[in-house]
Amino acid sequence: MVTTLQVKSPGQRVNLEVDMIGKYVERFVSNYLGGKAPNAVTDSSSILKKLKEEGFIL
Question: Gene3D superfamilies, per this entry (predicted)?
Answer without folding.
Answer: 2.40.30.20
